[in-house]
Specification:
Layout (H helix, E strand, L loop, with lengths): L8 E2 L8 E11 L5 E11 L9 E4 L4 E7 L2 E2 L3 E3 L2 E4 L5 E10 L9 E5 L2 E5 L18 E11 L5 E4 L2 E7 L4 E7 L4 E2 L5 E4 L2 E8 L5 E8 L8 H18 L7 E7 L6 E2 L4 E5 L12 H16 L8 E2 L5 H24 L1 H23 L11 E2 L8 H34 L3 E2 L1 H10 L5 H4 L1 H4 L1 H4 L5 E9 L4 E9 L14 E8 L5 E2 L1 E2 L6 E2 L1 E6 L3 E6 L7 E3 L9 E3 L4 H10 L3 H22 L6 H12 L5 H8 L4 H6 L6 H18 L1 H10 L10 H19 L3 H13 L3 H13 L5 H12 L3 H12 L6 H9 L8 H14 L1 H4 L5 H16 L1 H8 L12 H13 L6 H11 L1
Parallel strand pairs: 2-12, 19-20, 20-22, 23-25, 26-35
Antiparallel strand pairs: 1-24, 2-3, 3-9, 4-8, 5-6, 5-9, 7-8, 10-11, 11-17, 12-15, 12-16, 13-17, 14-15, 18-19, 21-22, 26-27, 27-33, 28-29, 28-32, 28-34, 30-31
Helix pairs in contact: 1-2, 2-3, 3-4, 3-5, 4-5, 5-6, 10-11, 11-13, 13-17, 15-17, 16-17, 17-19, 18-19, 20-21, 21-23, 25-26, 25-27, 26-28, 27-28
The structure holds O-methyl-L-tyrosine and zinc ion (ZN).
Length: about 900
């Protein structure tokens, strides 16, 4: 159990393990109240370790029953978080018997129960809640696992690797023996004992090997497994094709569980998933759900190489596997989208990813939890599964690909695997492989400086200034970079910033230019900024251009491009880079929203409206792209642009702008509704989803007008839509416009889907995120018979949605939102610290709040932080927020 004085762990304290455990056999006698675990390990002192070195074993919330060394009882010492063995021989067999209580494990870390079934979650430090073990990722062992459990309740017994044998025992139990041929760290261990059914698929890899793919779910959910299986098959094929990485196991299993702290987990050969990222059919899942399932299935599968075959030396290196694997899943989804929707589908996916980065990672990097992609210290590692480690980490990998090219990146991956397969390594090792595989590249030349992306927190700000000289036909672009201090890092050094760019003429045509002596003349260049200030001279420029900078968002920075409205309108209409077209629209929206938030006077001018109209009417543009252009920057993103945040005011301005777009573009919205009528049948593919998305955006705007006819249409769709996307979007349009019919529609929806927990999560979240939601309404949702604080999905659907996803309603002058938040953090913390600590982050940005919000938040936060029973996880978050 962690205590108040949980220590700070520092990256520079790393010491290699003194002992290796080459082989372990784990025997489980599974019982909900008291599970017995016998662990038999083959231990060997590492070459170079001192003969006096102790063996440190972690253990948490388990009871030690016996410990034998080479068959004899051995004396051990208790430590803070486990036991220590001294005076050890060079090699020995260690047998430890422990007991734990899966039923009482509400943290969902270690061995726990979901309903009447057993599951495990061991990343990052859950294995120590199962048995005593050096619970660190650089100790890799071969696991054999014996499972025994009552056959009538747990007919399916699964663990990592290959099933060696299975037999009924005389006492009514079933015994299964699993063997994983690959050495792995303890965080990748998993077991499942449950009553489940599975969808199976046999595949043959490119290399000719046969594999069995399985997706396990509860009875009754089998009709929701097709998309996960399709996504898994696509993942296997993609990794072979793009990176030459094949599945290395005969069998690959996915198991869905409804009580899960995170999205999914890449345990070797036995991925365990939150049901949210497995189950889908057209009646219960939206297009967005289908998309998430594809990317999460891909993500976990890709970890098999980037994470499992090569893992992290220590948890500070988490982004080694996470940043790289997010990059891989993003590329996978882009490639799949492009297969069905062409190149513009790739751009749509990129824009969505950048939107997420800006919505969640930029605020983190500007707040009290700002940390480098490779953090320097932590109290609870679970708090560092962050957008910085994941999403910014992926951007760092993407920049490497931008600097060395796609083929160069593939070469770097090959070198990485040939050097490190089977090892536990660092972010530096990955960067070194990429740079070594691409000698002479900008990444190689600036490798040391590029490493700052792992070491420095904060989002760099770029400022651009251009000067055209007609006489010499040159355009001189001066770029400066700076980064604000972040906690613990006062001074920042200049980083390597790849800036992909082009030039656009005032007539909208792309202008060719030459970026350097060794490059040819063309429409695009990659500039590599390495200094605090640097000028780039572009030659053979025929006219005064508008620079289109940071195309495709080539670096995770904030760019002040210095452009005015007129330039942006040209970029929105003509830029050949779809990302920057979208970006121009976002900036045009912001330049109208921000003054309105500050001065209260919203002006939605004709030039802006005409530009949006032109996008909506352009037959060459994808509906999905149009939807993105017509979607305003989020309230959170607007808040980040302001020195002081008044969330209700931002919300009102945002709503006013949406209403203005609804009114001013009414004819276009109506036209879209009629012309985008659905194709027959439902497919979640890019084209169909894009049409639905834009059509439903039209309906949302039309409902905002308060027109009974359109609200009636939306109600009708809640009744008779043939898929969840259309049904739910219509329901959301009613709730979002505070339509009179909303209540009846909500009731109808709940009656229809009462037995579909994932659909009910949406229903709860829609109400918790509704404009003007009162705290009493949130409490009423929590009194609903189907609400439970113990189920993370359900708790998040109500509490996190309100506190983190509904700023206009959560931040109240009377501070009642904050009191509610504190109450829920405390209640959750007693059950599940990981989930509580995430909710605690709702107040990360409290210091930026305008009066009276910050003033009413502070005492509530201080009182919560002083609560003596708080977990180390939650304490760490609050401590940083209040520091
Ligand atoms: N490695 C997983 C994320 C994960 C982390 C911790 C968990 O339990 C607390 C569960 C999953 C991934 O990146 O998908
Ligand atoms: Zn991951």
């Amino acid at each position: 159990m962690r205590t108040d004085q949980a220590p700070v762990i520092s990256r520079l304290q790393y010491e290699a393990p003194a002992y290796a455990i080459d082989q372990v056999t784990l025997e489980f006698d599974l019982d909900p109240e008291r599970t017995r675990v016998k662990s038999r390990m083959q231990v060997r002192r590492m070459p170079g370790a001192a003969p006096t070195a102790p063996l440190l074993l972690d253990g948490e919330d388990i009871t030690l029953q016996s410990l034998l060394l080479d068959g004899k009882p051995y004396v051990y010492a208790q430590t803070d978080g486990g036991i220590r063995l001294d005076k050890l021989p060079e090699t020995f067999a260690l047998e430890i018997v422990t007991a734990c209580s899966p039923r009482g494990n509400t943290r969902l870390s270690g061995l726990y129960m979901s309903g009447d079934a057993f599951f495990t979650q061991c990343e990052a430090e859950g294995f120590r809640r199962i048995t005593y073990w050096p619970d660190r990722p650089d100790v890799m062992s071969r696991f054999t696992v014996v499972l025994r459990a009552d056959k009538s309740i747990y007919p399916v017994l699964l663990s990592n690797g290959n099933l060696r044998s299975q037999r009924p025992l005389d006492d009514g139990r079933l015994e299964a023996v699993w063997e994983d041929p690959f050495p792995k760290p303890s965080y990748l261990f998993a077991l499942v004992a449950a009553r489940l059914v599975c969808r199976e698929q046999r595949i043959r890899s490119r290399a000719g090997r046969e594999h069995l793919l399985q997706v396990y779910v509860r009875e009754g959910d089998l009709d929701k497994t097709d998309h996960a299986m399709q996504s898994l098959m696509a993942s296997v094929a993609w990794d072979e094709q793009r990176f030459g990485l094949s599945l290395d196991l005969d069998r690959f299993m996915i198991v869905a569980v409804s009580d899960f702290n995170m999205g999914a987990m890449e345990n070797k050969g036995l991925n365990i998933f939150n049901t949210k990222y497995v189950l889908a059919n057209p009646a219960t899942a939206t297009d967005a759900d289908y998309q998430h399932i594809e990317s999460v299935v891909g993500h976990e599968y890709f970890h098999n190489w980037t994470g499992n075959r090569i893992t992290c030396r220590d948890w500070f290196q988490l982004s080694l596997k996470e940043g790289l694997t997010v990059f891989r899943d993003q590329e996978f989804s882009q490639d799949l989208a492009a297969q069905s929707g062409g190149e513009s589908a790739r751009a749509v996916k990129r824009i969505e990813d950048v939107r997420t980065l800006r919505a969640v990672q930029f605020p983190e990097d500007a707040g009290p939890m700002a940390h480098p992609v490779r953090p320097d210290s932590y109290v609870a590692i679970d708090n560092f599964y962050t957008p910085t480690v994941y999403e910014k980490g992926a951007e760092v990998v993407r920049m490497m690909q931008t600097l060395v090219g796609r083929a160069g990146f593939a070469k770097g991956m090959q070198l990485y695997f040939s050097r490190h397969d089977g090892q536990a390594v660092t972010c530096d090792d990955f960067l070194a492989a990429m740079a070594d595989a691409n000698p002479g590249s900008a990444l190689d030349t600036h490798r040391q400086q590029f490493g700052l992306w792992y070491a420095q927190a904060g989002t760099p700000r770029l400022r651009a200034q251009g000067r055209f000289d007609a006489a010499s036909r040159t355009y001189t672009l001066t770029l400066t970079q700076a980064c604000q201090p972040t906690p613990g890092q006062g001074e920042k050094q200049a980083q390597v910033v790849p800036v992909r760019m082009g030039l656009v003429g005032r007539d909208g045509a792309a202008l060719a230019f030459r970026a350097g002596d060794r490059t040819g003349r063309g429409p695009e260049a990659l500039l590599v900024l390495t200094q605090p200030e640097q000028s780039f001279v572009l030659h053979e420029v025929d006219a005064d251009p508008i620079p289109s900078l940071l195309r495709g968002f080539s670096a995770p920075v904030i760019l002040d491009d210095g452009l005015g409205d007129a330039d942006r309108l040209i970029l929105l209409a003509h830029d050949t880079d779809p990302f920057n077209r979208w970006e121009a629209a976002q900036r045009l929206a912001l330049s109208r929203l921000l003054p309105a938030v500050c001065e209260g006077d919203l002006k939605v001018d004709a030039a802006y409206l005409d530009a949006l109209r032109a996008v909506l009417r352009d037959p060459a543009l994808d509906p999905a792209f149009k939807e993105l252009v017509l979607t305003l920057p989020s309230e959170g993103y607007i808040a980040e642009q302001l020195g002081e945040i008044d969330p209700p005011r931002i919300h009102q301005t945002h709503q006013a702008m949406r209403l203005a777009l609804a009114q001013q573009l009414q004819a276009d919205w109506e036209q879209l509704w009629h012309t985008l009528a659905p194709n027959r049948g439902y497919s979640p593919d890019f084209a169909d989803a894009g049409r639905r998305g834009l059509r439903n955006l039209a309906l949302t705007h039309l409902c905002l007008l308060g027109d009974a006819q359109w609200q009636g249409r939306a109600y009708q769709r809640v009744k008779d839509a043939d898929n969840m996307t259309d049904r739910f979007d219509a329901l959301a349009a009613l709730v979002g416009s505070r339509a009179q019919l909303a209540e009846a529609a909500l009731q109808r929806f709940a009656a229809q889907f009462a037995h579909e927990p994932l659909v009910m999560d949406k229903w709860f979240a829609l109400q918790a995120g509704a404009p003007g939601a009162e705290i009493e309404a949130i409490r009423a949702l929590m009194r609903h018979a189907d609400f439970s604080l113990r189920n993370p999905n359900r708790a998040r659907s109500v509490i996190s949605t309100f506190c983190q996803g509904n700023p206009g309603a959560f931040h109240r002058a009377d501070g009642a939102g904050y009191a509610f938040w504190a109450e829920q953090v405390r209640a959750l913390d007693a059950i599940n610290p990981q989930v509580a600590a995430r909710l605690a982050r709702a107040m990360d940005r409290w210091r930026k709040l305008a009066p009276p919000y910050a003033q009413s938040a502070e005492p509530v936060m201080r009182e919560l932080a002083a609560h003596p029973g708080l977990s180390a996880d939650t304490r760490e978050i609050l401590g940083k927020a209040l520091a």
